[in-house]
Amino acid sequence: MPKLLPIVAVSLAALARTHAADAPDAAQLAFFEKNIRPVLAEKCYKCHSADAEKVKGGLLLDTREGIREGGDSGHAVVPGNVAESLLIKALRYTDKDTAMPPQKSGGKLADTVIADFEKWVKIGAPDPRDGTGAKVAKKAIDFEEARKFWAFQAPRAVPAPEVKNGAWPRTDIDRFILAGLEAKNLKPVADADPRVLIRRLTFDLIGLPPSPLEVETFVAESTRDPQSAIRNAADRLLASPQFGERWGRHWLDVARFAESSGKERNYTFPEAWRYRDWVIGALNADEPYDQFIREQIAGDLLPSKDGAERDAHVVATGFLALGPKGLNEKNREQFRMDVIDEQIDATSRAVLGLTVACARCHDHKFDPVPQKDYYALAGIFRSTDTFFGTASAGGKNKNGTALLPLAGSTAPTTVGTTARTGLANFLAKNPDKAKKFKNLPPDRKQRLIARFANDNPAAAETPAPARAEHAMGVRDGNAADARVLVRGEIDQPGDRVARGFVSVLGSAPATALPTSASGRAELADWLVAKTNPLTARVAVNRIWLHLFGDGLVTTPDNFGATGTTPSHPELLDALALKFMADGWSVKSLIRTIVLSRSYQLSSAWDKKNYDGDPDNVQLWRASPRRLDAEAIRDAMLAASGTIQLTAPTGSVVANIGDGYIGKGIRPEVFDITANYRSVYLPIVRDFVPDALGIFDFAEPSLVVAARDVTNVPSQALYLMNNAFVIQQSQAMAKRIVATPLDYAKRIALAYQLTLSRPPTEAERARADAYLRTEARGLIPAKSGSIPEASLTSWSTFCQALFACAEFRYLK
Q1: Of 16, 412, 447, 751, which has the fewest Cβ atoms less than 10 A away?
Q2: Does residue 60 contact residue 50 with C-beta atoms inside 8 Å?
Q3: Any bridge partners for residue 785, and if so which?
């Protein structure tokens, strides 16, 4: 379709633009500190460091320069090139003469460790080490001095500044922003056009485009009273059930939500969907953020007024159970400590914006977090039992575990003999299933019997038995303090450390944590205490990020020394204090921000402003933003008129049940066609749907507050060739042709459904010329009639609109 290409307002050359990192970012450095440096120190430095009695092979691995220069055989590490990195070859044991570490030093490393080194090289081998590698005397952390760092000081109330242009600000947010602009001799651009603003607001708040009627209503109201129009629109969107689906997905990125264990042996998490739905419900109900965090850390320990609330609290603790699991790990103690490490990492980064898990093997290299603080937290999580529900798979999964029963199924499930007989007959006809069933633990067998009765009513006796309900989550185990592990090694235990919190943040427990409980309840209270200097700031910064495209702190997962400092520190503190004073209401804070003039600016370019602030740090305009993967997919469904706004029950993974993905469960079964919102698509580690993965979906094994944003040719090719995109284009074409509109209004409707605006005269003429091309036999259809040629012309036209840059960007 050569004449279609001018309509696609972006070239492949532009799409091919990539961003090269000038220096390692905080996340990359954290990966090195957690996964690479400890292994090098433990397994390699004895023979390959400045302190070695004899440096073997001329290879030094204790500095960045040494590991890249390599030794007698060549470069040990070539950033970005695994194939040419001799260190990777040595770790893989592909050549017995160069295999490292040698057998006498423990032999080949675990596959997961080798995979970490491969990933490290692929991302550019970030490495903060420099110098000669000589030993540096260990210094005790001076916490009094460390607390002078901005992030460890309590937010301070500062009055909104006076500004020269007193007529411009509408809110205190505007006064802080304008003061920063005036200090640099910059001026904000004009306000956004109403059509641009309502599209921005609707995508930001519910992740969907506004309907043509909503756009025209907003434009009419804006003509009369612009601020009343946006207040009404914001209130309507905040009250929409789609709000929780949009903002719940933001938190699911942070919570590393997924429905499988990932790693080498990828097992399903059939009950993970309950946590997803709990998050969405909590955001829709505007549950106070402090309570939202408290329930995820210690919901099982909180009082409940009834069984339903008790169930919700249990489901909320799924936050601690959702992480990736190395089910291949044969050593149960190592597996346990790895789970604890992942829980510490997720909790500290999600709530505090600190990489506390970097202190597992040694004191944190950058932040004032000693190793003993890590093990103080480890004691709390070690006193906690985690239930994530992977099947035993014939005894091969030694780390399989049960699930937590919900209130509705605490009593034994009664299943009639007819149901049992029906299941028995089913298993007799399916020997492979029967073998798996035989090796299930008793509670899993009972659950499957109940599920069979529930899914096969004819096999169940009257009355039909209740289906057993379970959830992923945690509960208290045997309370005990943890020992410090020297270099993080389980076979090198040191002194015991009393359970506690992160010392530099203060407000440590006045007395020892209870001997009869894990301490998670106290940890949850400490995390959300108003005296904690980080929690409110971190939350506010992430909310700001999702409304402006970047946070006031541009490293939203890292408020430590390797993160960035706030562009507007007084504003960040003011919003954090307001957030807490307003009862930790997420909706209230969002409403405050979107009603500011700063949020409502246009994205117009201004040379003087650009020369003074090319990165728009001072917010002189609205930075254009690409929609995220879910919004792009959902916008296609909305434009085609096929979107299903009713949330599905359960999930694809729950329906498939327990199993090993790749062995027993084919990954293709998760590649589904569904018209419900993208937040409900199956999120299986290593098999994220193409519609999401192609547009930078968050890595579900990591805490991700800010997704990467790329602009690459594969995205354009997806929009031009993918079956789902073509299907939605055809559905949109049928929707348009079926309307009782004249020809020009149909073209206008297509633009309104996709871009929330009417076409320009040039665009209308170009579309008209394409749709009326007689040489291609594409004759426009009349109302009520859809000839094949006409449907092809309209569907390819609609697809061109989906493929244009404006469709997937917010101005």
Answers
A1: 412
A2: yes
A3: none
pLDDT in tens, 248-292: 999 999 999 999 999 888 999 999 999 999 999 999 999 999 999
497: three-class secondary structure by DSSP: strand
What sign does the dihedral 646-269-298-702 (CA atoms) show?
negative
Q: Give pLDDT, residue 773.
A: 67
> What are 384's strand-pairing partners?
476
CA angle centred on 398, ends 392 and 404, rounded to 5°: 60
Task: Enumerate the β-bridge partners of residue 471.
Answer: 404
C-alpha 633 chain-centroid distance:
17
Mean pLDDT of 168-183: 96
Would you give the DSSP letter of residue 100?
S
* pLDDT tens column, 660-684: 998 888 888 888 889 999 999 999 9
List pLDDT tens digits, range 439-484.
665 445 555 554 554 444 444 333 434 456 899 999 999 999 999 9
What pTM, to 2 d.p., does this model score? Answer: 0.82
Cα separation, 93 vs 73, whole angstroms: 16
In 3D, which of 288, 311, 383, 296 has the Cα closest to residue 347? 296
Greatest Cα pair distance in the chain: 87
Read off the tokens for 650: 């359960």
Q: pLDDT tens, 382-408? A: 999 999 988 764 455 667 778 899 986
Q: Token pair of 459, please?
A: 């096999």
Asked if 504 and 369 touch (Cβ cutoff 8 Å), the reply is yes
Q: Burial level of 431, CB count in 10 A (0-12/13-18/19+)? A: exposed
- Strand boundaries in 596-681, DSSP class E: 625-626, 660-661, 664-665
Q: Are 288 and 585 in contact (CB under 8 A)?
A: yes
Contacts with 348 (C-beta within 8 Å, 6 or more apart), sequence order: 354, 355, 356, 357, 377, 502
pLDDT of the residue at 442: 47
- Three-state DSSP class for 293? helix
Picking from 686, 690, 706, the residue whose alpha carbon sits closest to that of residue 698 is 706
**d(C-alpha 388, C-alpha 400), whole Å:** 8
Those residues whose C-beta lies under 8 Å from the C-beta of residue 659, and which sit 6 or more positions away, are: 267, 268, 391, 393, 665
Token pair of 158 as six digits: 């500062």
